[in-house]
Design brief:
Blueprint lengths: L14 H40 L5 H19 L2
Helix pairs in contact: 1-2
Amino acid sequence: MSVTAVSPGAAGAEGPGATALRALRTFSTAAASIAAVMLLLTLFCQWKGSAMGRAFTADPKVTGVGTGYLRRVDLKALRP
């Protein structure tokens, strides 16, 4: 049985430029993932916002106000 050490160059970590590129890719992936989750939550709040309100109260007036609030706040979050 043979044991071989792998150098950092062979593992794909060649120099400080590779670290910066890896950090940029990680940031880009995280930003895209967060944007996708925000878009899905926005669509859900626009489509079924009343269901979220009913999770907290059974009063139709309160649910109606909460639904309207969610719809306005969601659309406001999408503006740059």
